[in-house]
Amino acid sequence: MLDARYVADHLDEVRAQLARRGPALAQALDGVVSLVSARRELSRKTESLQAERNSASEAMAKLAKSGDKEGMAARRDELKALSDRVKGLETELGVIVSQIEDKLLEIPNLPHPSVPEGMTEEQNIVLRTWGDKPCFDFEPKPHWEIGEKLGILDFERAAKLSGARFSVLWGAGARLERALATFMLDLHTREHGYTEVYPPYLVKAEALRGTGQLPKFEEDLFKTKRSDPNDPSALYLIPTAEVPVTNLHADEILEADDLPRAYTAYTPCFRSEAGSYGRDVRGLIRQHQFDKVEIVRFATPEQSLAELEVLTLHAEEVLKRLNLHYRVVEHCAGDLGFCAIKGYDLEVWLPSQQVYREISSCSTFGDFQARRAKIRYRPEPKGKPKLLHTLNGSGLAVGRTWVAILEQHQQQDGSVLVPEPLRAFMGMERIAAAS
Q1: What is the mean pLDDT of residues 91-119?
Q2: How far is CA 266 from the centre of its chain?
């Protein structure tokens, strides 16, 4: 969430930055600025009346000592009237503060000055590629065809259980999913220094507000129901481990010496895929339920950009170890995530479609999430707390990595070579159809 005071004091600058994301976004500030002005005036009046009330209270205390009962009665009426007026202003002020917050919750973060211009993903900048595109002396098949022929991927039975956009993995397919998650977690914890976390899969609405999924993306969430439909304690299935892991430090103050902090978590993720009708209807690219290993970092503002590079390299290392060809693109301003100030996509090559597909998005959010979730740090002992910066990325999306392995490591006979780091866990060098 943006800082309301900063928005009001730097209106033209904020408008210009939001316009980099999209021309219409700059107009969303109009209501915020007028409300901030009203809040300032109400705050001034409230503070003035509070001072009068305090003076009246002190005067009444002096009268009580002197025994002036008649004067005390007059002062008591005056004090009550002042207190009532103060309470009324405080209530009005609370309403305006809530209105400001509601409006700010709908406004995205400001792009960092280093973010390139552009409005669509086609204008993202390719920074680097790794490895060579796999060459085949046969027509490469899509992962859904490979998986079904190997007997490790089943959409029909998943549909019988749950409907469209679900899958069942059998045998070596299920083991490959588990091997990938274990490999990623071991790499991030043993070599990259992350602390593994096993968080809840159901979270409160406050946690989703803290990381920016609410209220903006509510239609993409799965919400549970209580026996009482009006029960405000209903929980949401997490769309990503970013939500519970980032909120582990909500309403907390960390010490600067403890930063940066790095956490990783493996969880299922649940998304309704609202707005994706007709897109990726075949295969595992866009599912309602999928697994992901998330990497999350907490940093000081001074560390933030360097930490983004570190986090991105950690995600890239997974692809390198699995010998998967990929590229890294930088988001242009118009393609940034809602909360991000700067970000990169890791895109893996899918030979059957001759396209690169996102397998990880790595971003720094500045203090945007920290302001929402009230996550702060103390720059020096006993110093005034400040908002820290949060970062996260997929390290990686397990299902999409599964897809990339089947497509890039497929063989002419229909089998799939297992990447070397996974072979000990898998107990095989190749996934082949049962004879």
Answers
A1: 93
A2: 15
Q: What is the DSSP letter of 224?
A: -
Return d(Cα 245, Cα 264) in angstroms, integer: 8
Nearest Cα residue to 102 out of 216, 205, 204? 216
pLDDT in tens, 174-191: 999 999 999 999 999 999
Q: How far is it, in rounded angstroms, from Cα 100 to Cα 102?
A: 5
CA atoms within 13 A on the CB side of 61: 6
Which of the 8 DSSP states describes residue 129? E
400 is annotated as an active-site residue: yes
SS3 118: coil
Catalytic one of 304, 360, 361, 394 = 361
Amino acid making up residue 224: T
Dihedral sign, CA of 189, 192, 193, 196? Answer: negative
The one-letter amino acid at 431: I
Q: What is the largest CA-CA distance in the chain?
A: 105
**Strand pairing partners for 267?**
292
Cα(225)–Cα(223) distance, integer angstroms: 7
Give Cα 2 to chain centroid, integer Å: 15
**Which run of H or E residues covers position 291?**
strand 289-299
Active-site residue flag, 271: yes
Cα distance between residue 180 and residue 165, in whole Å: 21
Which residue of the set 20, 75, 165, 271 is catalytic? 271
Q: Which of 286, 321, 378, 430 is catalytic?
A: 286
- The Cα 414–Cα 385 span in angstroms is 59
Q: DSSP readout, 295-355? A: EEEEE-TTTHHHHHHHHHHHHHHHHHHTT--EEEEEPPGGGS-TT-SEEEEEEEEETTTTE
Share of the chain above pLDDT 70, in %: 94
Per-residue pLDDT reduced to its tens digit, 218-231: 999 999 987 676 67
Our answer to whether residue 53 is catalytic in this structure is: no
Contacts of 313 (CB under 8 A, 6+ apart): none
Q: How far apart are CA 79 and CA 16, in angstroms?
A: 48
Structure tokens at 385: 């707390």
DSSP 140: P
Beta pairing, strands 252-255 & 375-378: parallel
Q: Is 407 labeled as catalytic in the residue annotation? A: no
Residue 294 predicted with pLDDT over 90: yes
**Residue 128 falls in the annotated catalytic set:** no
Which residue among the candidates 261, 358, 415, 430 is catalytic per the annotation? Answer: 358
Note the pLDDT tens digit of each residue in 308-365. Answer: 999 999 999 999 999 999 999 999 999 999 999 999 999 999 999 999 999 999 999 9
